[in-house]
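User: Look at the shape:
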Amino acid sequence: MEEQNNIKKQMLLYLLFAICMIVLNYVIQKINELVIAPYICGNLGSVEIIQILYCSTINVDMPELIGSIAAVGITYIIKFFLDKCIVFKKSSLKIKETSQEFLKYFGFAILTTIENIGIQFLFTNFFNAPLEISIIVALPIGYITKFFLDRKYVFTKEY
């Protein structure tokens, strides 16, 4: 019974932090769109390398791409440490242990992202569901899958 309550508490925290990271991801992207990109492109956009790698919107909207990559990276690292230290109560920050955990965490993130995309694709293309419904179904399934993978394989072994 106590173990079941512990899992429920861990899952609740895990999902709460996931929601917080979704919001933070959005905020980072909006700050990039409204403040950082206009500042950099307005002041440094004449520098050819900055124009090509950050300010260009010819083939790809580079400011949006860079903002998305930065937001995912920042929120991913924050979520990893929240999960490690608060959700699963792993206090060790040894480089070897944390690196191994981070690599496993990242690997499962890739797998569950594929799962999310697959579920969204199925719901949108085979059930004619609106994108919003597909996302509402896919994200919780992905986060629940990731929670159990992280719990069983990432944050278990004491080093």
The chain is about 85% helix and 0% strand. The two ends are 28 Å apart (CA to CA).
